[in-house]
Amino acid sequence: MVRKMIDRLASRRVCSEEGSTLVELAFVLPILLVVLTGIFSFGIILNQYLVLTNSVNNGARAFAMSAGANDNSYSIMNSGDPCKYAATIIQNAASNLTASNLSYTISYTTYSTGAVTTYTGTGSSSPTCSDLPMSQYDIVQIKAVYPVTPVLYGWGAKSLSLTAQSAELVQ
What we know:
42% of the residues lie in helices and 20% in strands. By secondary structure, the chain is an alpha+beta fold. The chain has a 4-stranded antiparallel sheet, with helices on one face. It is rod-shaped and about 105 Å long. It starts with a helix and ends with a strand.
């Protein structure tokens, strides 16, 4: 009788699955955490890319619209410097990005000659082009670069660069 009880208890312990859930969780949890961290990091980087693209589009549009009308009677720009105006628009539109990490290049192509003039700036310093003669059909192109560091286990501290580019026609 005692022997039968011992055999039943022993067989119950051998066939018991009480700890299997904990073991499975120990195997799956690290993989799940890495995947979730990657998803969150990708979401943050995608948001930064969309903000960067939007700010570059707004800056190029503002630069193109800062030219006066054909009779020089109207301009949306307060100052006489379209580069500084576009840089201000870019920085204001990219308010959740770190301004000191943002760098951009403004290329202005004259329609009549095809000459390209390039101005570069960063978040803290904006280029000046107050003496730039703007005319209809000229093209302004703005390219911005913003570094990001994704947070992933095993990835290390590798930095990537987000690049956004936009072109507008001066009208």
